[in-house]
Amino acid sequence: MKILSIGGRYKPTNGGNAKRISTMCEAFFRAGHEVFVMTCDAYNVASNNEVINGVKVLRCSDCDALVNNVSETINEKSIDVVLVHEETYLRKLKLLGLSVPVVYECHAIEPHPNKYKEAIHNIIRKFYFNTKFVKRVFVLSKNAAENFSKKYGYPKDCIVYTPNGLDKANVYTDVMHYGEGDSFIYGYSGTLYEFQGIKVLLQYAKDILAIATDVKLMIVGGGPMETEVRNYVSENRLEDRIIVTGSVSQEEFDELTQKFDVMLMPRPSTPSTESAVPLKIFDAAIHKKPVVMSNVSGLTEAFSESAALIYNTKTPDDFVECCKKIYRNRDLAEKLVTGEEEALRLWPTVDDVASYQLEGMKKVIKE
Hints:
Helix content is 38%, strand content 18%. The chain is α/β, with parallel strands linked by helices. An 8-stranded mixed beta sheet has the order 3-4-2-1-5-6-7-8, sandwiched between helices. The protein is globular, with a radius of gyration of 21 Å. The protein starts with a strand and ends with a helix. The mean pLDDT is 92.
């Protein structure tokens, strides 16, 4: 089978949907399929065609340039199925009258903040969120499947649950490091978006630092809110208590995450955070870090109270109480890490999840 993946970010970008898309495309290739990627991410005029771990990547200068080359790429490469990762491309591809089936991976369900524009968008979505055009929808959480069907009237039997897969070769390999240093570090890792919980973290940063004089915060990652985070640290003269790394490589990410004593996931409740299980859940298990997190379904679908300290987003002050509870409490930390291992023991692997999508794609090709 020849698969064309369209949209989203891709390696060498690390984090967000880049990691998900790159990981899945490489899994498709390992399963014996030929995989092509068209993306506007990391475009370089000098070198816009490359092969990364068997996946053929074509980088385009912008969205329009990408769309203008889709039909030619499908014909030239004899593509069997198109996998789309962004609504923008669905809208544009609908107008091309493609000769091959289209499937869609829904990374998040985030409404427009203006309810009138959202109503208009929902009317437009009926134009492409139907089985005549989008043959299957892949979602990253069970809650997302329910929401997608309810919101857009898309048939449930054409929605396939394909969560972020676990790379079990890397899990449970690290020794647990907790409370061993002079400083006790509460850490956040990931792209700095509001929906990831950065605003919540800044709101309660001083309260967390007040738990004890040896407490520090480490924020690993870059993104849209990095300037706001750095300004907060500077304005409050907290350079010696809050470490902000900015964007880092995967190797640096792993090294820095290992320095955490506790991993924080203070996600607010939004359609996006209620509709995807984030990869950082697996980072916690890989590095054997106890977790303090909110009760959004994208997190609780993976971890219950036996695997994390969970607070209700409706009572966000409890976030700090959970942080206090885990401060230099090794017995509790070990109990939670054991709970993480149990929670993920039956979780599907990356190759398992890839097989779910491949099965769906094979079916639509035959239909």
